[in-house]
Every structure is written in structure tokens, then in C-alpha cells.
Amino acid sequence: MHKFDTLKPVMVLCALAFFLLSGAAFAAAPETGALNVGVQLEPPNLDPTSGAAAAIDEIVYANVFEGLTRITEEGTAAPALAKSWTVLNDGLVYEFLLHQGIKFHDGTAFDADDVVFSLNRARAPTSSNAQRPLFEQIKTVEALTSHQVRITLHKPIGAFPVYLGWGDAVIVAPESVATNASMPVGTGPFRFQRWRKGASITLIRNENYWGDAPALDEINFVFIPDPTAAFAALFAGDVDGFPNYPAPENLALIERDPRFKILYGTSEGEMLVAINHGKAPFDNLLVRRALNHAIDKDVVIKAGLFGFGTPIGSHFPPHHPAYVDHSERYPYDPTLARKLLSEAGYPNGFSTVLTLPPPSYARRGGEIIAAQLEAVGIKVQIRNIEWAQWLDQVFKNKEYDLTIVSHTEPLDFDIYARDDYYFQYNNSDYNSLITQLQSESDETKRNSLLQEAQRILAEDAVNVFIASSPKTAIWTKTVSDVWANAPLQANDFTRTQNTGRIAVTTKDTTTAFPAFSILLLITCIAFGSVAYFGRARISFLASRFISMLMTLAAASIVIFLLIEIAPGDPAAFMMGLNADPASVSALKAELGLDRPALFRYFSWIGGLMTGDFGTSYTYRVPVSELIAERFWVSLPLAIIAFSLSTAIGIPAGLMAAARRRKPSGQIIVNAAQAGIAVPNFWLAILLVLIFAVTFRWFSAGGFPGWDVGLLPALKALLLPAIALAIPQAAILTQIMRTSMINTMHDDYVRTARAKGLNTNDALRTHALRNALIPVLTILGLQFAFLLAGSIIVENVFYLPGLGRLVFQSIAQRDLIVVKSIVMTLVFCVILVAIFVDLAYSIIDPRLRKVGTS
Amino acid sequence: MKRSFLRSEILPLFHGNRSLALGIALTSLFIMAALLSFVWTPYDVTALDVSTRLTAPSTTHWFGANHLGRDVLSMTMVGARISIAVAFIAVGLGGAIGVPLGLLAAAKGGLIDDIVMRFGDLVFAFPALILAILITAVFGPSATNAIIAIGIFNIPVFARLTRSAALPIWHKPFVQAAQCAGKNLTQISAQHIFPNIRHVLIVQGTVQFALAILAEAGLSYVGLGAQPPIPSWGRMLAESQTMISTAPWLVLFPGVAIFVFVLGLNLLGDGLRHHYDPRRQRGF
Q1: How far apart are CA B86 and CA B81, in angstroms?
Q2: What does pTM read for this prediction?
Q3: H or E element: which one contains A202?
Q4: β-pair partners for A205
Q5: Three-class DSSP category at A287
Q6: Where are the domains positioned within chain B?
Q7: Yes or no, beta carbons of B125 and A792 under 8 Å apart
Q8: A114, A186 in Cβ contact below 8 A?
Q9: Is B267 within 8 Å of chain A by CB?
Q10: Domain covering B18-37+64-281 in this structure, CATH number
Q11: CB–CB of A678 and B259 under 8 A?
């Protein structure tokens, strides 16, 4: 009877655990059709014909917008909207035959007039096209019929069909051109669907596409600028890959992981330190050469790019046949650099500002370059800015001294001949060379001109040319048909397939998760069973229940006040500092923030009870669904860790108590002392180092999902559970030992011994039960701690649990999600505390306040 | 012959109390290192030296160098500063608010006692880390907000401990005598109750200090603690984690620093508890 009583709370807990775990069985069906792509930069707008940022092309080129021609992976021009073309008059006239029956995404028809409109718009004097000088070579554009266009040039252009394949030359419709920046309308296989500022852009399949239908239903471009976050997103399965992976330091680890494939390709990117020739002292050739001598390219490549780069000495990619290696034109020589600076009139150097955009090559390379310039006496102040600021201040307004950037456009050497380019470089020899080049179509002559161009740029030390970096793409193995090479900075996903992800738009999102109602129901059942089996008084139970509800109410008020009132306007906070007022007020209305606080509070609480937690700002799925999905990672993790910790801690504590005067007992005590002091996330990192990096028994992180089977999922949770369990087991050991030792001195144990029971029997039958009472409190606290404390360890292993969700939500300012996760965890903690209380009343009849029974 | 002060006063403290000796030794090692870092570190912690990047521990760089060639030993020394500062202020804050609250609850009882205790329940309903995350999510990550977050959690810890330690003392004859002498509640709390529970508070303070060091490390590991360029142990671990396969020593030393420091503080706490233990003092 007594023994059965002791087991009751355990049974209740087990039943609860089983109930919660069984939910994992309702896993999702096999998934297909969507691709989550990690990109480093968020574009400033989405109109490739009026912006310079490569980030625009990375999203819309070939996917949303199409040109007359398209660039293939090999860098050649292939037919696109133009079925075919003929070259007349020695390259002065091009006639394009267009496909018929094509419609833009908004339903308007595509015809020759759209081509005329687009090209005339690009070459107009008021055009904001980044390649306007190129389009200015066009003399006339005429529509011969509705599907025939004739383009006449001022003089022949060597690779004109290739230029027409660039993102800057895509065809737009006059009806939608005004809104293309925020809502692009093209003819491509994917339609623009949604832009979550600061988070992601979603494209969905264009059902009426004129060409071969794409394989994907949906593409989500997720903006991840930070290399560490990129690694985490990849391992956690948040993204299916990166066309340009920003963290070369992880490649060794990724290479070993069977889930991923790495594609090394050539790119047209030249990483350089851009110099503002319009500003003293950089107008001085000696100063520019000094900068070139002061910077050690090898070191920048080694430390800034982790070895992934080829040193260059001019603005030209090494894989091109006309390439000449000028990388040794200015060898690293600080003494010579100082000498040149003195000759230029700066014997003591000067002060300058190095402006850095967000990509890791710029930030990391910038730190090193700043240190190298300091070494020759140039005082460098580093200024880190966002990409939009960079485009505005540096590229447009030329307000900078030095900056680091990678120029990714193919064969873009003509930028040095432009009057108004941000380098402000001006050399008439070079300009005439480029003019010559643009009308030259003979391959050998072109190449020798290109070589001369490279030489001039190197001799003039226009910029500090650092490296040509390879394009390193990483994809999960479920992704196929993606570009390896980057002839232009774009991601053509027209043919790409992914068998590893389901499209959110097609996913059934109606399943509500009435978590709190379920949890409350469980509580009621538990109370009822305790009332029945435990013979506890109803008034005692009722008072406990009421105090639980009061604590919950107080906690919800605290969370609500902190999040919704303290930081000012949550909508502005979510949208970021640069948001425009109109979109902030739109979001406000969407979130219902224009209503009174009291109303918002009660609608939140009401929503919690019914399972409607609101809709996540960044993920655009119901918060309840997000939490439910992550809960099935965090909760099993906490349960495994809890079981491990209990299985280690209680026997160890008992043993330490029984052998407290022996060396073995002392060893346990010392081990426990050490265990308490270990930070669990560090232990987690060490476990990764030992079992994932060294022995390769486990993967370094990530979670395959429950639907791949119980064993792989449990395997992914084992290392995190051990890391969580060990410090908790150490605490439990100490408490169990102390409690047991105290009980052993009690009179009734001594009496039992005096009656003739041996030590072990006396301890087991009399002391253990009493000694367990304080331990139970700790167990309750520990479970709550594990549930919440797992959030840091989840980060170490990139587990897609509640912890990662909460940190991502914080980073993306998705406070709706933060609020509900915190409330869920608080609820769990309170619930566990109640269960412990109830368990007490079963174990210890004195606490039941039964009075006379 | 007259024995030196050291031998007559200090050494007996450690007699049979190895925890105290070891705890003091380890704790002062870190405090000294942190203090020393204000005037001297082996290398400049902000300077870059690419020639030494990712060097393994050697005679020139005892703890190795990171991906920017920065000396890990120097960074660990400077990192001790922020750890100690955050933990010390947070625990101090918790004590400064929690102890008076606990004394008040013990002295007044009734409604005030209830309010203080329910406040404790409320704070404890938030797992410490969650509370810290909530605060930094709302107010932005910084060392100050880490201090506030850890500090808030310490308030009810001290309040409850103070209350439970103070309650039995209120029933002692000397307190009743003081009441008869006309002293008010504040005077009694300050002059009679507090001095008698000081030991308990010091022991708990040490334990809380150790917990605060762990909490600070955790917060800065997830990027919610002190922000760059201030070196902190947690962030050093986070930064080196992606280089674990090429430079495993980078994840070793900041972790060892946290571990040894927390171990030292726990030993110090054990030693102090043992030292103040009335059962032990009776033996003398």
C-alpha cells in the first residue's frame, strides 16, 4: 500500500510524459516543393532596372523578370523572351523575334511595345538604370510587328546579346513599372508574393508561365548576414542552402556532413578596397600605391576569407582568357609604403575612415586591412553600416574615404570609364580604350584591349584589388539543378528541385493548438486523481489551484506589460529604425495595436485559451503552430535529460551517503562539485568536439524531425540531453546525499537499527522515503529548469526547438512569438510546481492536511 | 617566541577546511587576473596580428590565438572583468533589495509578508534564463540589462532566505528584551536580527555569485550579454564554436575559466558554510 503510494506521482508524471510524447506520432506527411534559400543581403528594392545592388538580381533575375536573352551558367546568351535574333549591318542592327502569347504576372500581355518601352526607359537621360551608359549605345528601338523588335546601335557592341541578358535589361510592363520596386511584376516562372522586411522574400509558382513549368511551388529567400547565424540556419534545417555561403571557416565541418553538398564554382566577384579619388589624399597616385604596398593580400585572404580566394592585381576575373596576373605589381612592403607616403607629403600618415558593408568578407577583411594600414601610420576608423546605407552614402553620394566591397557584375571594367562612378576615377586613355573595346568584336583584338585595360588599372593603383573569391554554394542533398558557377550574381531557380520541403502556402495551416486548454485539462485531471486516490482535502486542492491561476494571471500581466507597453511602439520596434511611417501604421492595424491595451490583453489571453496565439510576423504562420512544432523538440529533450539526470543523481547521491566515510564516497562528492560548476553549453560544445568532430559518431547539430523515425531523432537529442543532464545530476547527487545523511541520524532509523535491521534495510525501508521529500522539490525545479534551460543548449546543437525560436524571434523582433513562448514556458514551470505539491501530499500524509481520518 | 599573525590568526581558519583554502585560492586567482588586466595583459586585446592567427597554445601564446590573431590568454583575463562585474553588481543588487524585503517580511508578518512571498512566487515562475531573455529582448542586449535580469532573479532568493533565517531569531529572548526596551522594528532588524543572519547571507551570496557567473556566460554566449568589443567568456565560446574543427583549443580556455572560477566560488561557499557552522564551533 505504502509502496504503491510512492509510485503514484511517478505514474502521473509518466502518463503525462507519454501523453505529450504521443503527439509526436502525428508527424507531417512527406514534403516537397519549396526551397528556403539563405542569402546574405537584403535588397533595397526589387526593381533590377533601377538599382545597382546585386542583391536585387539575386532574387528576381530569371525567377521573376526575364529579358530578351538570358545568361546561361556558362556565361553565354541564350534565347528567352526572344525566340531568336539576327545580326545585320556588321553588328549595327539586331532584329529579335519574340515569343507570342506571353502574359505578365498581372495579366497584361507582353509584346514588342513592352520591349521598346523597357529599353527606351533604360537609356533615357532620366534613367536610374545602373548600366545606363550601356543602353545609351542604342540609337533606336522599334516595334516592327507585335512580336518583332529592331534595335539599332550607334556603333557595334561586341557582346550585345549577352548584355541584353543582364538583370538591368529585363523587360518590364508600363502598367506595373511604377510599383516594381516593392511589388515586382515580370514574365518569369515565379510570382512575387511577400516581402517581410528584414526577414524574407517569398516567390510562388506562376501557374500561367509561358515556358516549361518550374519544379518548385515556392521559394523563400531568407536574409542571413551573419556567418555564425548562417551556419546555424543550415544545420537547424531552417534553410536548404546558400548560393554564396558566407562562412568559409565551417566548410571543413560541412564537408563531412552527409546531409550537405558543397559546389565550388567560379564567380565574377572582385573583392577590392575602393578608393575615393575625389577626396584628398587619395587623388595622389603615390598615396594609392602606398595603400597597395601596405596591404598584405595573402593575409587578408587567409584570415578574412579563410583561404578562399585568389590574389588579383586588377579588376578582372582570373578564369577569363584575357586575364593577366598583376597581383605582384605592388608586393607587400610596409617600408616602401611609408616611404611613398613621405614622398607624397604624409610622413606621419593621415587619418581616414574605412566604411564596411555587412558581408563577412568586408567586416573581417576590414579589421585586418585597418590593422595593416595602422602599421604604416595611417590611422583608420572603422565604420560598419547596413547595405542600404552603403548604397545611399557610398555608392550614390560618394561620401566615403575607403570601403571594401566585392564587384560581382561580369566584365564590368567599363565602370572605370564612367564619369559619375563612386570611385571618381578619371583617365582619358582608359576611357578611349573602353570606347574602342565596345565597338570591337574580334576576339583576339578584344583580348589585347582587355589586357591593356587591366594594366592601366593596376598601374594607376585605382583601387586595392584584393582577391577573386570562388562562389561556394552549399545545398542539402534534397536540392538539385542549381547553378554552381556564377556568370552573374543571380540565382536561377527555374529548373531547381527540392524534395525536402513543403510549401507553406500549400501546407494545411488550420490545425490550432489549444495548448493552454489542454494543459489546464491535464491539471484538472491530475487534481481530480489526487483528490480521489490521494485522499487530500478538496479545500487544500482548491487553494492550490486558485494560487496557480493567480500566479499565471500575474505572470501574463508582467509579460504583456514588458512587451507591449515598455518599449514604446511595438510595430516601429518590429519594423526597425528605417521603416517608413506608412508601413508601420499598416502593421499596427494588422496586429490590432491601435486598440486599447486592456482589449489587447484580454484578446491575447482569450487567444491563448482557444489556441489562437496570433500570427507570427516573420514566419507568417500561426504562432500556436510554430510553438507546437518546436515543443516536440524541446519537451522530449527535457524529458530525456530529466530521466538521465535522475537516473544518475539519485543512485549516486545514495551511494555517496552510504559510503560517506570511504574514498569512493568522497570521489562522488568531488565529481558532483565539479559537475555543478560546468556551464552546460560549454559541456555541449565539448561533446560536439569529442563525439561529432573527433569520432564522428554524431552530427554536429541539427534535428532530422520525428517523421524520419524514432531512432535518428533520439540520436540527435542524445548529446544535448547529456549536456543538460550532467550539471543537474550533480546538483541532485549533492541534495540526495545531504538529505539521506540527515535522515540517517533521525531517531526512527536508529531505532530500526537497534531492532536488528542491517544498515541497508534500515535505509531502504525507513530513511529513503523521508529523504526523498526535499529531493522531490529539486526534481520539480529541475524539470522546469531543463525545459527553459534547454534553450541555450539547443543553440549549441542548432536544434529547432523553442530556444532557437525564441532567439530568432528576438533577432527578428517578432515579439508576438516571444510573448507566447515565454508564457508557455511560465505555464509549464507553474504546472510542474503544482505537480510537485500534489506529489508531496501523496508521499507525505502530514502535508495533506487531512486532519482526522 | 611570538607566532606571526599569519600563523596565529589566518592559518587556523583553514584547519580541516580544505574547501575554504582552495576556494579562496581559486577565487582570488581570477580576481587578481581581472585586476591585473587593467594594467597589463600579455598582448593588446584589440590589436590584430594575422601572423599568429589560429596558433595553437605555445610558449608565446599560452592559450593560443584566435582567428584574428588575438591572444586568448589576454582575452580571458579581460573577460574575467566583465564576468566579475556583472555577477558582483547583480548579486549586490539582489541582496540590497532582497535582504531588507526579507527583514521587513519577517518583522511585520501578515499582509506584507504575503506580498513579499507572492512576489517571490511570481519571479520564480519565470525560469531565470527566460526572465533574462525577456528583459534583453525588450530593452536590447547589453551588460547592464544582463545585470538587471540576473539581479531581479536574486531579489526573491535573498528575500526568502532572509525571512526564513530571521523568523526564528524574532522568538529569541534577546529580541524580546530589545522590544521591551522600546526599540522599533527597524532598529531591532538592523541591530539584532541582521548581525545574526549575516553568515547565512554571506554563504548564499557566494553561491549566488557562482550562479551569476554561469548566467552571465550563458547570456553572452547567446549574444545577450556584454556587446563587442568588450571580451566576454561566453562570446569567446560562441565565436570559436564555428572553428571547432580547425582550432579546438579556442573553445577550451574560456570554458575552463568559467568552470574553474565557478568551482572556486562553490568551494568557497562550502568552506564558509563549514566555517560558520555552529556545530563545528561548539567543538572548539
Answers
A1: 8
A2: 0.72
A3: strand A200-205
A4: A190
A5: helix
A6: 18-37+64-281
A7: no
A8: no
A9: yes
A10: 1.10.3720.10
A11: yes
